[in-house]
Q: What sequence folds into this?
């Protein structure tokens, strides 16, 4: 999405040139964004050049390469009723056609659902490279051999996300009109973000970072060099600690989810079982060598045990329906609960390390 100011900046401003403070603030913001794009692009090209020229990147970047990424954005599809709205609902107003429970449904949009599914799917693809959580800005250790593939995925994500967001924004006025018709007197325009706010809400950005200290600094002042090196090492350790914690949390959540799906409800009825809960664990195990960038040996041992446990599981027998085998469900649940205990201990240990580093 663009307006006359951003279009003007794109057509008339040359990145790197002087930005006149008298220009419209929207033009200034777009010029600054163009300069940042050039800076990031140059950094990416430098990284790609290093990767293509040498198999030993440590000579250039001290062996430390980090992928810094931010991937976020959403709009609530429902909202808790206010006190006045609750009172209104109790009177069953005839103009309210939507089904109202404890929350008020805000909108329905196929384009929004497509956008959310795209984000979810793309996060899983990044997870296969050892980048498990990208809801907020974070840094992750990257496997040197995976850098070109991660770069390609990131470039595609930038372009595809922009297209998905634009399609959603085009549908947004119609979605609001449909909501207004269904909600009647419960409709409140302030519940809905403006197109401009939506455009800014969904974002994806990334860059490659290297942690090292220039040798020139040592020649200038040895003490400053030592301090800079110690600081860089602490930053690196924190990134590694975060990486270990996130990886442990990811598999613990998957194992816990499978165990819970095989545990009967309080009234004794079976919870619905989804084969994908086993598939996600299998996918994690199969891609673990790529994910385990920080060489977490303790987690590797747990994953090896888990691999033996899930190998050959017949998902049909875990079904809550007639195909299900109660004995098999109980056995697999017990296995997962056993593994989860070990993973919980590892996760607590990893998080303690992260907290300690941040103190």
A:
């Amino acid at each position: 999405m663009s307006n006359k100011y951003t279009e003007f900046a794109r057509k008339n401003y040359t990145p790197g040139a002087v930005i006149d403070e008298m220009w419209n603030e929207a033009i200034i913001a777009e010029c600054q964004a163009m300069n940042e794009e050039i800076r990031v692009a140059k950094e990416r090209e430098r990284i790609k050049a290093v990767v293509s020229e040498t198999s030993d990147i440590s000579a250039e970047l001290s062996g430390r390469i980090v992928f810094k990424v931010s991937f976020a954005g959403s709009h609530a599809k429902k909202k808790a009723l206010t006190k006045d709205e609750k009172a209104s609902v109790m009177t069953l107003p005839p103009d309210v056609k939507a089904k109202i429970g404890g929350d008020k449904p805000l909108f329905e949009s196929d384009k929004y659902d497509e956008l959310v599914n795209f984000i979810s799917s793309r996060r899983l693809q990044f997870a296969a490279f050892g980048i498990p959580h990208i809801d907020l800005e974070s840094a992750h250790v990257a496997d040197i051999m995976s850098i070109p593939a991660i770069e390609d995925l990131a470039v595609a994500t930038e372009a595809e996300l922009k297209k998905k967001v634009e399609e959603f924004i085009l549908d947004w006025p119609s979605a609001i009109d449909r909501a207004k018709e269904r909600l009647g007197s419960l409709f409140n325009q302030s519940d809905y973000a403006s197109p401009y706010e939506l455009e800014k809400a969904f974002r994806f950005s990334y860059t490659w970072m290297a942690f090292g200290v220039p040798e020139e600094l040592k020649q200038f002042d040895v003490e400053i060099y030592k301090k800079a090196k110690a600081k860089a090492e602490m930053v690196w350790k924190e990134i590694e600690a975060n990486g270990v914690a996130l990886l442990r949390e990811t598999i613990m959540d998957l194992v816990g989810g499978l165990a819970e799906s095989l545990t009967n409800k309080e009234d004794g009825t079976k919870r619905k079982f989804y084969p994908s809960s086993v598939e996600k664990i299998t996918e994690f195990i199969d891609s673990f060598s790529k994910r385990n960038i920080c060489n977490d040996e303790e987690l590797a041992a747990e994953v090896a045990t888990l691999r033996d446990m899930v190998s050959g599981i017949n998902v049909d027998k875990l079904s809550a329906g007639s195909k299900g085998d109660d004995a098999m469900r109980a056995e697999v649940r017990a296995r997962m609960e056993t593994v989860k205990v070990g993973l919980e201990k590892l996760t607590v240990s990893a998080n303690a390390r992260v907290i300690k580093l941040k103190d």
About this structure: Confidence is low (pLDDT under 50) at residues 50-64. Residues 1-53 form one domain. The two ends are 42 Å apart (CA to CA). Strands lie at 65-72, 78-80, 103-105, 138-141, 203-210.
